[in-house]
Write a structure and sequence with these properties.
oxidoreductase; single chain; N-terminal domain of TfIIb; alpha+beta; three-stranded mixed sheet; 7 helices; iron-sulfur
């Protein structure tokens, strides 16, 4: 019992010695060592562990906030706003601040899933296969629905069998290229952007 009391007494006195409040009340400067504890002295910024820092753009809207991505052994460990950016000046909204959580979430799907027609299950497929399939189905739909002229002979070169719905994260340059490729190249008439809806 005495041993337990001594142990408890030692822990309490150790806590009181380490606790910054009594030192500050005794008159030590708050800005100096008085504000630190053994635990806080041992803390190190997690960014010290990073062996590489890269830049990125937040994927959640069209504002285009710049981000700094800190990585260790090729894996991201922290994402924060880039203070050099004139757009966000180092700040991020709650969605942008949550980029790392979305990136590392175990729920994130990072491979191609395909469900064949009339199938009741999804299959994992290689990305090259998926890109080739998208290209083939796009060409097939365009070829089957492409109209060169109207009944009165006017040239229209268009298809109503395809459409594009862009996202709010697309910037002006990307939207320009989409309009040129899909409208001028493929003849799509139905080109819309989710940001207008």
């Amino acid at each position: 019992m005495k041993k337990m009391r001594r142990s408890m007494s030692g822990r309490v006195s150790g806590f009181l010695r380490d606790w910054s409040l009594p030192r500050q009340l005794a008159g030590e400067s708050v800005m100096a060592e008085a504000a630190k504890s053994a635990a806080s002295r041992a803390l190190r910024p997690r960014l010290e562990e990073a062996d590489k820092v890269g830049t990125s753009i937040c994927p959640f809207c069209a504002v285009g906030c710049a981000q700094l991505v800190y990585a260790k052994n090729g894996k991201p460990i922290h994402i924060e706003g880039d203070p050099r950016s004139p757009v966000n000046q180092g700040t991020l909204c709650p969605k942008g601040a949550g980029t790392l959580g979305v990136l590392l979430s175990p729920e994130r799907i990072n491979h191609v899933l395909h469900r064949a027609p009339y199938s009741d299950r999804w299959e994992q497929k290689p990305l090259d296969w998926a890109m080739e399939r998208i290209a083939q189905l796009t060409k097939q739909a365009r070829d089957e629905t492409f109209a060169e002229t109207l009944p009165d002979g006017r040239v229209i070169n268009q298809t109503l069998g395809l459409g594009s719905l862009g996202g709010a994260t697309l910037d002006n340059e990307e939207n320009y290229l989409i309009k040129k490729l899909f409208g001028g190249g493929l003849g799509m008439v139905n080109i819309e952007n989710q940001a207008r809806i």
